Amino acid sequence: MELPVDFKNKYSKLLGNDATSFFASFDNPVEKGFRINPLKHVDQLVEHSTESPISYSKWGYYGTAHGKTIDHQSGLIYSQEPSAMLVGEVAHPKATDRVLDLCAAPGGKTTYLASFMDQEGLLVSNEINHGRAKVLAENVERFGIKNSVILNESPDRMEKPFKQFFDLIVVDAPCSGEGMFRKDPSAMDYWNVDYPKECANRQKKILNSALKMLKPGGRLVYSTCTFAPEEDEQIAAWMLSEHDQLKLETIKRDGDMDSGRPEWADGNPELTKTLRLFPNHFKGEGHFIASFKDQRTPELDENRKKKSSKKSTLDKEHDKLWTDFSSLFLEDIDLFPKDNLKVVGEHLYYLNANINFSKLKYIKPGLDLGIFKKNRFEPSLSLLMCLKKQDLKRAVTISSEQWRDYVHGEVITDINTDLKDNGWAAVCVDQIIVGPAKYVNGTLKNFYPKGLRLNF
After folding, report:
1. Which of 154, 181, 186, 389 ranks highest by number of CB atoms within 10 Å?
2. Which range among 151-165, 288-302, 309-323 has the greatest average pLDDT?
3. CA pair distance 401, 429, nearest whole angstrom
4. Among 199, 225, 386, 428, which one carries the catalytic annotation?
5. Where does S-adenosyl-L-methionine bind (predicted)?
6. In a domain, 434, yes or no
7. What does the pLDDT read at residue 304?
């Protein structure tokens, strides 16, 4: 790979004798990986091997995730570069935490955080770019996350609505992307020797906003996919010098992981608690991670201890349509408590948190359960993706061959089912829910979203 001359000059000086192997690593194959989705509660993958586990990741494996498969389309797996998986492991939220993924697209960190939270707590995933925020929402939907909100905001506009709100904030910051050179050589086209400093200025603004949203006693995990000290150790040193309440946490590391380099910043020995992943030492594309702890005394949050006393906001018509649908479709009609349901437009959302969305731009203000139409309720793919087969009263099992026809948009005719009445049903391959359909006189009318349909 023909690396930029200024890049090679810079890292020759920084790395010394290690520079040769560092530059040579860019000619090695890209390391690929995927994670199993624990929210799905499915024991075995259909098309992917789990013979090469990643030692530091609870759910990670080396290998290529193939898109046009049952495993991928149903959210059983998520494709993620191995280095990036370590960010989620370091963050490791508690199930009941309020968590913010501030720069979340396309969704790798968000889905990793959700895996630990197991559908509890609150996970707010934000992406400033609208197009990327829609991709984030699609990945959250496929993964089956029930406790999420998808925002499309700038960090500074979030400061007031979420003042000292979050227990954990993850900032996987926009960066100069030097760790992307091997995976995406076009990343070199916009790199120049001053670009890391430009990125560092933007990162400081993002982090200042993030710290205003962090609760006393909370944690902030900062990461980049670049090797630039300006965006890595120097940002961590700036955080410590500008914000007295912060202290670096030691990150557990294996032998192929490097400590941060204090000499590349202000010499503060605390910076050795940060983590570097170099592609000539580590089986991955490269990353920097720092974990900060807010040392202020946590304040007692009375609102968390109180059970919500709010009543359902559904009007009688919406309430009846949802009740009629859920009583026929779900084994437990209280799976989505009515005091956590809200109609926006004609869409019904579930959110187990009190958030004022009046001054926030959002893509999804909760889990989209479906849409109200004239005299009926139509379930969404999001609803199906967050359920387990045992949650359902109405499910129809198809073969893996029929699945190809289903995700292509075809009507499925040759089925075996115990269903006697026409109506909505979940389409499954064995125990895997793959989407919605309407059972009509022995056939499945296809309601797999048109924008997601596949050609083989």
Report:
1. 181
2. 151-165
3. 10
4. 225
5. 103-109, 127, 172
6. yes
7. 57
Residue 252 φ/ψ region, left for φ over 0, alpha for ψ in the -120 to 50 degree band, beta for the rest: beta
Decide if 451 is inside a domain.
yes
Contact 354, 342 (CB under 8 A): no
- Looking at residues 265-277, what average pLDDT do you find? 98
Give per-residue pLDDT as tens, 162-197.
999 999 999 999 999 999 999 999 999 999 999 999
175 is an active site residue:
no
In a domain, 121, yes or no: no
**φ and ψ of 369, to 5 deg:** -80, -25
Q: Count CA atoms closer than 13 A to 48's CA, side-chain side.
A: 29
How close are the terminal C-alpha atoms of the chain, in Å? 34
Is 405 annotated as contributing to ligand binding?
no
Inside any domain, residue 324: no
pLDDT band at 39 (very low <50, low <70, confident <90, very high): very high
| pLDDT value, residue 313 | 81
Q: In the prediction, which pLDDT does 91 show?
A: 98
Residues sharing a CB contact under 8 Å with residue 174, sequence separation 6 or more, in sequence order:
103, 199, 202, 203, 206
pLDDT confidence tier of residue 311, bands split at 50, 70 and 90 = low
Residue 184 labeled ligand binder: no
Question: pTM above the 0.90 mark?
Answer: yes
In angstroms and rounded to an integer, the radius of gyration of the C-alpha atoms of the chain is: 23
340, 313 contact by CB (below 8 A): no
Number of structural domains found in the chain: 1
Residue 106 marked in a binding site? yes
C-alpha closest to that of 31 among 60, 2, 6, 5: 60
Instruction: State percent of the chain over pLDDT 70.
Output: 97
CATH number of the structural domain spanning residue 421 = 2.30.130.60
Q: What angle do CA 365, 366, 368 make, to 5 degrees?
A: 105
CA dist., res. 145 & res. 359, Å (int): 24
127 labeled part of a ligand binding site:
yes
- Does residue 109 have a known ligand-binding role? yes
Cis peptide before 337 (omega within 30 of 0): no
